[in-house]
Amino acid sequence: IEIKNFTPPKRAPPASSEYVLLSMNRFERKKNIELAIKILDKLRGMLKSTLFKKVKLKIAGGYDVNNKENVEYLEELKELVKVSNPPQLSLKESKLTLNETKSRQTSPLR
Residue 43 class from Cβ within 10 Å (0-12 exposed, 13-18 middle, 19+ buried)? Predict the structure, then answer.
């Protein structure tokens, strides 16, 4: 997303509308997931509060508990969420072990 190119809508969306930004990744630094959190924070300053309340950021992903970098990065993301503190942000994680990761990679699609 090029935040500098974002233009807020000229008219308000229907009252029931929500805008959901979804990020589904493995929690690895190279994925730059914190960028989505920073963008949400930028939008807070760009949008009217009534519109911003309708923006939801959902971050979901897995990580290998045996991979130190994955574990550390997830903790960094949790801390960033805590500091940023937007109510419309949710972070869900799924722990994977090395054996689960291998079995998922080798099992056929159903």
Answer: buried
